[in-house]
Write the structure tokens for this entry.
Amino acid sequence: MSGQYLTSFDGAKIYYHKTLRDKTRWLIFLHGFGGDLTAWDKERDYFSRIGISSIAMDLRGHGLSQKSRNRDFYKVENFSKDLRSLIKAEKLLQPVIIGHCFGGMVAMYFQAKFPNDSKGLVLVDTSFKPPFLSFNPIERTFLKYLFELLRLIPDFHLNGHRNFDEFAGTNDVNIKRILSDILHTSLQSYLTICESLVDLNAKQLLRQINVPTLVIEGEKDSIFPPEIARYLNQRIKKSELDLIPDANHILVLNNPKDLEKSIESFLKKIGFIPQVP
């Protein structure tokens, strides 16, 4: 796969790959925490076959995009500004943003802050805050201290993208896949992003999302359980919810056909894909 770099708003080098089919219709895919743009290969191949252009990007600190040990580098607003820099660089008009897990958080933050830059959102197995965290100040302080302590460990990482096919069918918590996430993101980037996300709470942003939104959730997701998806559906005004039976958090790898069908149906509803009589 041959991609390219853009220089983002703060000079960070962000890697992305695009497939051009229709210059007027673009989907932008955002991967989950610890992943990279190749996680979306099957879904992008499908939409390419039906004539829709797409872009997938390596979020900062992931894949081939620039990494840093600076905590401020990974503020959630910076991820959303990278997305806006990409849209501007490619001169895209009203793309639909599709995000899984952390990519969904970035998509929500982006839409709330830049309400006129997209036609719709697809949020896959995501939430308004990191998993398993309450907003107890003592808990947050402890976690930040722990991540800071772990950052004393020497850094290590593997270069390049990976083959996600080997992780198809895995459970929500799969040690081999998580280790691969850490190794390809780099230990320091992984820990620094974790530390920067401890205080993330985008609950108040949900009411600011004003575009048609599809919330897709695996019924057996233990990372972001279905009640979180229902909450997003209730708080986001123009949203609909699609629960995928017997699916877990790894929908992108485990249930690509279900995702493709759900997203395509949504795109037809919002006029992104013409309805066939």
Observations:
- Residues 4-269 form a domain with the Rossmann fold fold (CATH 3.40.50.1820).
- Strands lie at 4-7, 13-19, 26-30, 53-57, 96-100, 120-124, 213-218, 239-244.
